Amino acid sequence: VRNAGGDRIVSLSKSSHVTLNRNSIIEKRLLLALDQKNLHVLYQPQLDVKTGKFTGVEALVRWDDEEIGVVSPDELIPIAEETGLINNIGSFMLEKACEQAVLWKKAGHNIKVSINSSVREFRDKNMAKSILATLERTGCPASLLQIEITEKFALEAEAETSIIKQMRTLENEGIVFALDDFGTGYGSFRYMQLLPISILKIDQTFIRSLKFEKTQQLVNGMVQLGKSMNLTVVAEGVETEEQKDFLTNIGCDILQGYFISKPSSSNGISSLLV
Ligand code: C2E
Ligand code: CA
Ligand code: CA
Ligand code: CA
């Protein structure tokens, strides 16, 4: 295969072509969906083990496009990260989360709303500023916003100082950061040292294999590590009573997962709050 300039370029397999096509269709439809605000948000409750109450929710993006149907976050987010549209999704989710936190607050519930951000979004030097502006515009107190950062991406050296500075700014304003998918990336300990993290979210792959003694020991170690660093420890993907009991016994602070509650609409969450 030759391009217009006559250079030989690598030929793609049929399946790579199909993927490329689908990705570019998703990108086009996503631009439109963002423009028309056709994405929506589900909220998954987080149970405080000590009080037995829901103290927070995680906001999760959902997209059901009229032409291409449902696109799962696992497919959507990597494409959005590659194309830069992740920043637009991030702004959309932030705005929604803040508006919802304010609505719950007005109804008498102090529910912390967590949004997911990729470290990539913090490459934008105006990230902290625009988050604070959204809080102001929506009237959402900083104390009701939490930001989950995944350790999937290595911190790039050039961006590192700016990312840390922005996170510190936000932390000083009262926003809390969680380290998401803890234990799966290669950056965990480095992130814990460098970033202003207050919450550890143990990845669901560990919770899923809690039937194995080795995993139990590992998860127990993670919880104790978190505690020794004065961090709040969250377990995600809690699907069974056995998992809930084990995590409660080893002192995990907050539980999230289908056994506690599935992600649901804001109205669904409101009806759970008493
Ligand atoms: P995550 O942040 O680790 O979110 C938890 C995922 O596990 C969610 O999948 C949730 O629906 C699912 N989940 C919750 N409880 C259980 C359970 O008990 N069992 C099982 N098997 N799954 C459970 P979802 O919504 O499909 O999101 C997948 C990933 O996509 C998220 O993983 C997150 O990394 C990313 N994501 C979702 N929404 C956003 C967003 O608004 N922005 C960004 N940057 N990423 C997002
Ligand atoms: Ca998350
Ligand atoms: Ca996670
Ligand atoms: Ca995950």
From TrEMBL:
Sequence ranges assigned to domain EAL in this UniProt record: 23-274
Name of the protein in its database record: EAL domain-containing protein
Taxon lineage: Bacteria, Bacillati, Bacillota, Bacilli, Bacillales
Residue range from the parent sequence: 394 to 667 of 667
